[in-house]
Amino acid sequence: MSDPVAAGAAVRLKGLHKTFGDVHAVRGVDLTVAPGEVLALLGPNAAGKTTTMDMLLGLTTPDQGEITLFGRTPRRATAEGLVGAMLQSGGLLDELTAREIVQVMAAQYPRSLKVDDALGRAGVDTYARARYGGLSGGQKQRVRFAAALVCDPDLLVLDEPTVAMDVGARAGFWAAMREYTTGGRTVVFATHYLAEAQDFADRVVLMRRGRVIADGSVAEICAKVDGRTIGAVVPGTPADELRALPGVASAVLRGDRAELHCADSDTALRALLARAPAAHDISVTAMSLEDAFIALTADEPVNTEEGV
Ligand SMILES: Nc1ncnc2c1ncn2[C@@H]1O[C@H](COP(=O)(O)OP(=O)(O)OP(=O)(O)O)[C@@H](O)[C@H]1O
Which intervals hold domain ABC transporter (predicted)? Predict the structure, then answer.
């Protein structure tokens, strides 16, 4: 490894490919994650996020490519307790209590947090003695989080960690994550909640059809998509006239309030004020992460399981 960043990387994926029958799920993913980085993996359904994470953790073998975690194989890094994971798949034993599950996990590692500490950080204290099988979906997620944390890992890998959590549980989860990352630890998480990526990630990697199509900070990803949105109250101006203004790509009118999506917002704003001099309450905003996500994955069928 000649690249010093790659040499000291928490995660290094090089030329990863994975095929399931006819489905080429991951098609040449290269990714280096520095220690201390919090990386959100985004993409539509079937983009290859879970397959990439499973390979990263050594749960699935790539057809091609190399994976190292802190310079070790995934298996070795996991055995040394450097990696904690919270995955969509893999059930925990329904008969055990939350506390027993975390105890079993802790016993497998050379160093670990105190079980009560992990339970407390994950917000499980109040139902630690309840059987796992009897817990709600969001409560189970938090037990999984405690189980991932207990080895006191340097890298946490989380696949849609807040699925099934209510608003309060989700806020508690991210507060615990902030505490965990304060010490410079690394997190790779996949999510469909773009606000979580926006609020929590240092870096966003956008996947589509098995490839990385954008990689950067939220601001950098948003800047990949040209355009801005102009909002304004425009009394008596028909939508078709707004749509026809130079610089405007599309327009939505709700009552007198217009939202103009613009390829060239300077030109559009001048034209708007010329056409509707009474326009007021004007705002010009950059693309949100959601706008960028939709634009960059635009021809992707929504909610399909097709990967080819
Ligand atoms: N074990 C498997 N057997 C067959 N096909 C699989 C398997 N695992 C994944 N796939 C396929 O690989 C593609 C990528 O799936 P993957 O779960 O990695 O996507 P994802 O980005 O995590 O999607 P989602 O957001 O829906 O969780 C999909 O087409 C999926 O059907």
Answer: 11-234
Model pLDDT for residues 113-130, shown as the tens digit of each residue? 999 999 999 999 899 999
Superfamily of domain 4-222: P-loop containing nucleotide triphosphate hydrolases (3.40.50.300)
Q: What is the pLDDT of residues 41-71, one digit of tens each?
A: 999 999 999 999 999 999 999 999 999 999 9
Please give all residues whose beta carbon lies within 6 A of any atom in ligand 1, as ranges.
Answer: 20, 23, 25, 43, 45-51, 305, 307
**Predicted-complex ipTM score:** 0.97
Between CA 257 and CA 221 the distance in angstroms is: 28
The residue extents of the domains of the chain are 4-222, 226-286
Phi-psi region of 186 (alpha: psi -120 to 50; beta: other; left: phi over 0): beta
Give per-residue pLDDT as tens, 186-222: 999 999 999 999 999 999 999 999 999 999 999 899 8
Other Cβ atoms less than 10 A from the Cβ of 9: the count is 22
Class of residue 27 by CB neighbours under 10 A (exposed 0-12, middle 13-18, buried 19+) = middle
The third-level CATH classification (topology) of the domain covering 226-286 is: Alpha-Beta Plaits (3.30.70)
Beta-ladder partners of 72: 69
**Contact indicator for 25, 33 with CB cutoff of 8 Å:** no
3-state secondary structure string across 66-117: EEEECCECHHHHHHCCCEEEECCCCCCCCCCEHHHHHHHHHHCCCCCCCHHH
**Which of 41, 42, 50, 205 to mutate to test ligand 1, by most ligand atoms within 8 A of the CB atom?**
50
